[in-house]
Amino acid sequence: MIDALGYAAYTAKAALEPFRFQRRSPGPHDVVLELEYCGICHSDIHMLDDDWGIGMFPMVAGHEIVGRVIQLGAQVSSKFAVGDYAGVGCLVDSCRHCAYCETGEEHYCAEGFTGTMNHFERGTKNVTRGGFSDVLVIDERFALKIPGNLDKAAAAPLLCAGITTYSAM
Question: What is the pTM of this model?
Answer without folding.
Answer: 0.93
